[in-house]
Amino acid sequence: MDLHPRALIDQARSPTGQKFLKYSAVSVVSVIIAQILLLIAFNVIRWSAADSNIFAVGVSSIPSYYLNRAWAWQKRGRSHFMKEVVPFWALAFLGLVISTIAVDFVDGHVHGLHQAVRSLVVQATNIGAFGVLWVVKFIIFNELMFKHHPEVLEDEPALDGRSGVPG
Fold this sequence. Notes:
Elements: H1 5-13, H2 15-44, H3 49-72, E1 79-80, H4 81-109, H5 115-145, E2 158-159
Antiparallel strand pairs: 1-2
Helix pairs in contact: 1-2, 2-3, 2-5, 3-4, 4-5
């Protein structure tokens, strides 16, 4: 890959580059939502690191799905259940499991620290755990999930793009 500024600009202007930039922006939004929720749940409500993480990841995954689908990949209409919904939520669940195990493990080893430091460690661990999956998710979203599939299989259920329930 050519790393000269002009080549990078050209890549960013390509269709895949545009999707990657939008995916990155959605990721920033999702991380901000998750971190705010994690901070509130862990420090204000005083849930455990694991429970706080489950709450934050679960809630922040909802806007992530819709923003990625509609804005980054320009998909409209009903969500395809097997090609979009199941893979997205499987990846979200994988991220949830990995990050919950990580934050629970780390929090178990920093109990003697001040709450503010513990909070920073838990939040950094959450971000790090999701960072591991970030590139893999882009490839899966771009090449499998949100790739244009002109054929619609009549026997497979779809989700209504507005309500998120089977259509």
